[in-house]
Amino acid sequence: SYALTQPPSVSVSPGQTASISCSGDNLGDKYASWYQQKPGQSPVLVIYQHNKRPSGIPERFSGSNSGNTATLTISGTQALDEADYYCQTWDSNTVLFGGGTKLTVL
Amino acid sequence: QLQLQESGPGLLKPSETLSLTCSVSGGSISTSGFYWGWIRQPPGRGLEWIGSIFNSGITNFSPSLKSRLTMSVDTSKNRLSLKLNSVTAADTAVYRCARHDNFYDTSGYYSNWFDPWGQGTLVIVSS
After folding, report:
1. Residue B108's pLDDT is what?
2. B83 forms bridges with which residues in the sheet?
3. Using CA atoms, how far apart are residues B1 and A36, in angstroms rounded to an integer?
4. Distance between CA atoms of residues B25 and B38, nearest Å
5. Nearest neighbour of B112 by CB, restricted to A86, A95, A97
6. Consecutive sets of 10 residues in chain B, 127 residues long: mean pLDDT of each?
């Protein structure tokens, strides 16, 4: 069955660029969405349809998708971006989530 | 502003049936084009899609839960319902509902995403 793989953790220094990957077979042929989840809170959509941002999501969040990998990029990372991030796609009439990546802003 | 609020029993015994409700405010559940989804998250773990339902009652379920799952929509009360039978400790999780938006591009590729989400309700299955 189809699966999405994310690194368990990513670290970044404040002000630097964070990249979080999400891998799956031919994921580039599918649309990917990304969610941010802070401790004790519900997930928040940050990217959909590869690279669209919902209203209220800062421009420093961007997405790309090619080959087998979708990538969430956070430019000028801030301390408040520290959270778990999940990718999501659709395959064979099933919604799939990646296992999540904990972003630490050191 | 669309808001979703889950409600449920909190604590269940193994083999019982989990019944949850998601009340939608700030918008109509009958709005054309949207599915409404349920997603759960075991404590300290990742997200798992349970299933989604269209306002017409058309459903789409996770293959791993399909045999135990029922979903419904009450458009008169603007709410969704989920029933999961024969629960075990593995069903212990925070259960959330969310609007499940979707889109077909000009090439026929399908995109879907969840926004917004409810705050969730913790369900513990324990004897």
Report:
1. 81
2. B19, B70
3. 20
4. 17
5. A95
6. 95 98 94 89 98 91 97 94 98 97 87 96 97
